[in-house]
Design a protein that fits this description.
Number of domains: 2
Strand content: 15-25%
Strand order of the largest sheet: 5-4-3-2-6
């Protein structure tokens, strides 16, 4: 069973990938009736980010590359396959679907996503790019 101390440690990994607003809501939820769920979710997301592939670690895998994170806003989606190796976290690699005429693989600015209140999907389950594309 995860503790609030575990969640505080996990936030160190989660913080560069989530907006202050969304993180604040998660933090507040750790004191509500469903605190167990939210503490566990923070720890799960922190561990996922801590262990996800770094830049070039999935190079050559093509559609078999694992998507670790999903961001969304309106009809736009960003699927992150690799995080930047540098800290602070500035960018990641993945698939962007801006809701019109297809999708594009490339570098995605995590900072820009956060600044524009794009939401990190807390219910996303990692899957391959092929599974994302076949939707």
């Amino acid at each position: 069973m995860n503790t609030k101390l575990d969640a505080v440690e996990a936030i160190k990994h989660l913080k560069p990938f989530i907006s202050k607003q969304q993180l604040s809501v998660l933090g507040d939820a750790c004191y509500g009736e469903e605190r167990r769920f939210f503490i566990d979710k923070i720890v799960e997301m922190g561990n996922l980010i801590k262990t996800m592939p770094k830049t070039y670690e999935q190079d050559g895998k093509g559609d078999q590359a694992i998507v670790s994170l999903h961001y969304f806003k309106g009809n736009m989606d960003w699927f992150i396959t690799e995080k930047d190796m540098e800290m602070p976290q500035h960018q990641a690699f993945g698939l962007a679907d801006l809701g019109y005429d297809g999708e594009e693989l490339g570098y995605i600015s995590i900072q820009e996503l956060i600044e524009n209140n794009v939401e990190l999907d807390l219910h996303f389950t990692p899957k391959t790019l092929k599974e994302i594309r076949n939707g």
